[in-house]
Specification:
The protein is built from 11 helices and 11 strands. With about 325 residues, the chain is of the alpha/beta class.
Length: about 325
């Protein structure tokens, strides 16, 4: 009798979960973007939110809870009800923060349910106009010859530019003086003003000053040259074989969100990424949508693990901490 009651209770829960998923969403869904409004991540979040809203038939709003390299907003999602109505859009910092923060109040893997990858944004190496190096090969040689005095800028600990810089230093087996800023805007302003030597940042942020002749451009960090800047070689072809890094974005729900809800959200994400308008708008924002098979829970789960395996040893070796 006892076993029968347990089985009955399990069946009731399963039916209730399935019914809830069938009705999902019955109200507004919130996408948490844990960085400030107006940045590349915010732009991407709003584009994909509008695309998914069309598929789901419900309004999707964006919540910008910024601070501490995205960890404040990420924690807010981890502590939200596991019902699919509060989701996290986060970039590769979700992996890096596991090493940057010794006292992180959530587990990037175990406190979230992956929904799928969204897009990837390339990066580029740029320098001040007065820098002696004119090509990427020149830049590598210049850094090696002047490692005691050269300065590399970034937009803050845990930012894409910071992590790209760490990877560059690791590739050259050196440690450089850092010019750290609170955001890409101030960093670029000072690079244009010649206050430090070079940096690596998302192409979305640097293409305009490159085209305006305000800074020098050296190379992109993708496997292939970019259609929007075909004149720029890849770092791999220009002197650092295998040097590749993109700012990827993924979508997560709180741990325990029912699988039928996750599946519905993942399906909506995949459909949105196939929408020509979404693809075009993301491309204009400097991001490339991922293939449908990467916009799945399993693909994001595997990718996050590989990124943690990549960034944690590198950050710990560099002795960098955000705490």
């Amino acid at each position: 009798m006892h076993k029968s009651l347990i089985a009955l209770a399990g069946a009731v829960c399963l039916i209730a979960t399935s019914a809830a998923a069938e009705d999902f969403p019955s109200k507004t869904v919130t996408l948490m973007m844990p960085y400030a409004a107006g940045g590349p991540g915010d732009t991407l979040t709003r584009i994909i939110g509008q695309g998914m809203s069309k598929v789901l038939g419900r309004q999707i709003v964006v919540d910008n809870t910024a601070g501490a390299a995205g960890t404040i907003g990420s924690l807010k999602v981890a502590q939200s009800p596991a019902d699919g109505y509060t989701l996290l859009v986060m970039h590769f910092g979700h992996a890096a923060n596991t090493a940057l923060y010794r006292n992180l109040r959530y587990d990037a893997v175990n406190d979230f349910e992956p929904i799928g990858m969204i897009a990837e944004s390339p990066m580029a190496f740029v320098g001040k106009k007065a820098l002696a190096a004119n090509t990427f090969q020149d830049l590598v040689a210049y850094v090696k010859a002047n490692r005691e005095t050269v300065t590399q800028g970034h937009a803050g600990v845990g930012s894409a530019s910071h992590l790209c810089g760490l990877l560059f230093q690791s590739a050259l087996d050196t440690k450089l003086a850092a010019a750290a800023y609170r955001g890409t805007g101030p960093a670029l302003n000072d690079l244009i003003g010649g206050q430090f030597d070079f940096m690596c940042d998302q192409t979305l942020n640097v293409l305009q000053p490159i085209r305006g002749g305000l800074i020098k451009a050296y190379a992109v960090t993708t496997k292939q040259r970019l259609a929007v800047a075909p004149e720029l070689p890849t770092a791999s072809e220009a002197g650092l074989p295998g040097f590749e890094i993109t700012v990827w974005f993924g979508l997560w729900a709180p741990k325990g969100t029912p699988k039928p809800v996750i599946d519905k959200l993942s399906g909506a994400l995949q459909q949105a990424l196939l929408d020509p308008e979404v693809k075009d708008r993301l491309a204009s924002a400097g991001a490339e949508t991922v293939a449908a098979q990467r916009a799945t829970p399993d693909a994001l789960r595997a990718h996050l693990k590989s990124e943690i395996d990549k960034w944690v040893p590198l950050i710990r070796k560099a002795g960098v901490s955000a705490d």
